[in-house]
Design brief:
heterodimer; A: 227 residues; alpha/beta; Rossmann fold; 32% helix; B: 384 residues; alpha+beta; 2 domains; five-stranded mixed β-sheet; 52% helix
Chain lengths: 227, 384
Amino acid sequence: MTLVEVKDAVRTFKRGSEEIKVLDGLNLSIPAGEFLALMGPSGSGKSTLLNLVGGLDRPNSGEIAIDGQRIDQMSATRLAAWRASHVGFVFQFYNLLPVLNAVRNVELPLLLTNLSKSERRKQAELALDIVGLSHRFNHYPRTLSGGEQQRVGIARAIASDPTLLLCDEPTGDLDRKTGDEILDLLTTLNKQHHKTVIMVTHDPHAAARASRTLYLEDGKLVSEFKP
Amino acid sequence: MKYLSLIFTNLGRKKIRTSLTFMSVLVAFILFGLLGAVQTALSQGVDVAGADRLVVRHKVSIIQMLPYSYGNRMAQMDGIDLATHFVWFGGIYQDPKNFFPQMPVDPIPFLDMYPEYELSQDHRDAWLNTRTGAIVGRKLADRFGWKIGDRIPIQATIWTKKDGGRTWEFDIVGIYDSKKKGVDLTQFFFRYDYFDETRRGAEGQVGWYVVRVKNPDQAADVAKNIDDMFANSPYETKAETEGAFVQAFAKQIGNITSIIIAIMSAVFFTILLVAANTMGQSVRERIVELGVLKAIGFTDRSVWAMVLGEAIMLTATAGLIGLGLSWLAVSGMSDSLSGVFPVFYLPVKTVLIGIALTVAVGLVAGSIPSFQAGQLRIADALRR
C-alpha cells in the first residue's frame, strides 16, 4: 500500500533576483512500512523533499499525498494538526528544548492531544522506554550525551505514535558507534513498530540500513538502489 | 492551562535577564502605587466631598475673614438647608513637626453637616456640655496616644488669648471615626463659642463657611445667589462646591495629576522597552525551538499565544507583586505620614488601573516578538 505519493513536485526559492529550482518535477512513491534513504549532494533537494512530505513546506506546484490525503491543499492549521498525529521528526542536532527534561521534551507533542496529564506522562515514559532511556527521564539535555539526546529526539518523534518518521541526517552529529545504535533503533522502529522511515543522509553506511536508497541531483531522482 | 508550565519554564531560561526585567517592572508598579496614594492624598477630600455642600470664602482669599452674621443670612436663603463655619487655628502641639489641623466650629451644625464623622452620643453630649471640649479623629488620637479626659495644650501661632497668653488648653471629650474611606481622621475640632470669647481680635468673624444645598442639581445657582447677595459689600464672597474647592486647593502646588501622569508615562515607556527587548531577545535566541514546536504540530496561533503569554506572565506577576508591595508600603507609611498626608491610602481605582496596566504592558511588550514567532516559517527556522 502506498503511503507517500509525490507527483510532479516543484519547489523553487528566490535568492535575490535569482530563482532556484530545488525540486524539479519530482515523482516519488513510498509504500507503507518502507525504510527509505535519500542521498545526494548538498543542494540536491533531499531536505526540501523531506519538508514537503512532512508538511513543513509546500510545493510551488505538484501534489503531495500521504495515506491518500492531499497535504499540499490543507490549511496551515489543519496541516499542523495533521503533523501532530501523523509525522514524527528526527533532526540532526536533536533540537531538544534545553529547559525541559527528557520526559517533558517527549511529552511536548502530546500537549496537542486530549490526553490527561498522567496519560501524557505515561506515554512519554513508554516512548523513552522504547528508545532505552528509562533511566534518564528527569535528565536535562545538557546532561545527556549526543546519542542519548538523539534517543530523546526519537522518543519525541514516536510519542504520538505517528505512521511516518522523517529523519534529517539523524547520525550526522554522532560518532560511528553511537550512529550505529541510532540506526539500530530506527531499524527496530521500522521492523517491529511498523513505522515508515524516510531518512536523509550523506553517509552510505547509514543508507545501507535502508530497504531502498534514492539519489537526488539538481532536484530530480537520478538513481535508485535496493540492497 | 497545559501550556502554563511550558510558559513558566521558558521564562526561567535566562534567569538573570528575566529577574532584571521582573525587578524593573516590579519597581515601576511600586512607584505607580505610591504615586497613586500621593495623588489621592493631595487631592484628598475630592472623593469624599459632598455634592450637596458648598464652600463660601472671602472673594480675595481664604485668609480674609467673613462676618459671623453671614451664616444666618445664608441659612435663610432659598435652596440652602444648613450653614456652618470654620476658622483656621494653626496652633502647634509640642513641636511644629506634629502638624495637624485645628478648627473651632459650632458643634451641632458641624456634626449635622458632616454625617461621615461618626461620634457616639456620649461624646456628642460631652462636647455640648464642655466649653473647652474638643473632638479629635481616631488617627490623630492614636498618633499621640490621646484618650478621653486628656487635657491638650496648643500653642497659638495666630490667635492670642485676651489675657495675652498663647497657650490654649482643650479637653478631649470625643473621638470621631468613619467607615467611609478617605475621610480625614487627623483633625482637631473645638468649640467656636469658647474660641470667640477667648481670642483677642477678629471677634465675630469666621474663616469660611460650608453650606448644604437642598438640591445638589441647583448647587451652581445657589452659589451664584450667595455671591450676588454679598456683592459690593466689604466682605464679598466666592462660593463653590466642596469638590471644586478641594481641587483648587490641591492645584496650588501644581497640577498633581498631570505631573504624576507624566512621571508614570516615562516609567512605563521605559519598562515597556525593557520588557519588549527581553521578549525580543528571547524569541531570537530560540527560533529553532519555535520551529521545532511548529514542526511537531503547534499552530502559528498557539506559538504566538505562548510567546505573548510569557510576556504577560512576566509583567503581570511582577506588576501584581509590585502593587502588593506598594499597598504594604502605603499602609505602613500611613500613620507616620499622617501629619503631611491626613488621607494616605491606595485607592481601589488605582489598584484596578494597575492590574489592567500589568496586563497591558505585557500585551504591548510581547506583541511584536509574539507576532514574529507566530509568522516563522518552519523550514526557515529549522535551517538556522
